[in-house]
Amino acid sequence: MEQTLRALYHLQQIDLELDDLEAGSGDLPSEIKQLESELAEVQSTISEFESELSEIRRERNEENLQMQELRTRSIKLNERLGTVRNNREYDATTTEIAAAEERSKDLSKALSAFDDREAEILREVQTHEKKRDEITTNFDDKKETLYSIRESNSDEVEDFRSQREKALKELSEKLLERYGYVRAKHPDAVVKVRKGACSGCFRAVTPQTLVEMRRHEQVFYCEHCGRLLLDEELAESVEV
Ligand SMILES: [Zn+2]
Questions:
Q1: For the chain, which end, N or C, has fewer CB atoms within 10 Å of the first or last residue's CB respectively?
Q2: Ligand 1 centroid vs 229 CA: distance in angstroms?
Q3: What pTM was estimated for this model as a whole?
């Protein structure tokens, strides 16, 4: 049983080391995910602006064509004004000229509104592209960092994993199940008893249990937090 208790504590130490190595990458994985979704969002905003831009440019081309036709027409109307034969023709022509001028004014307004919106969109696109570039840089840096952390830890992780395999062989399925269950709640599932208390929850262990624990004949659990208990001396003889 003493060997089992040692193996159990050993397993616990290995698992804590592995936790630490995994935690070395900190929040990086979730930060990278976050940046990825920000990147997709800013890219989709840029695409929306770009399609509005091409729509505006298409409409503006059409109106420019209309404007040219209107100018040609105005020139013709003004020429006709010099050749009218009577008042009726004169009035009809001036009315047409006035209408063409009115239409031309409307088109000018519309064209300048398109120009304004185009400038606005171009500014927005520029701002968003800048943002996209910043996110991309950040994203690449974090990915690179995560990669090198994993790379530099990989030997150590490998080593702990093989130690873990060995430790598992010394433990019964039932005990491992209990260990897994406690560890889901407390990462430090196996703790020393220090000064008569569980060093997980710091509550006292009964004197009776303390006496029995020294015999190393069975596994004890903290009756408050459920952690597996080990007497300090035994725990200290275990090395990782
Ligand atoms: Zn406890």
A1: N
A2: 8
A3: 0.61
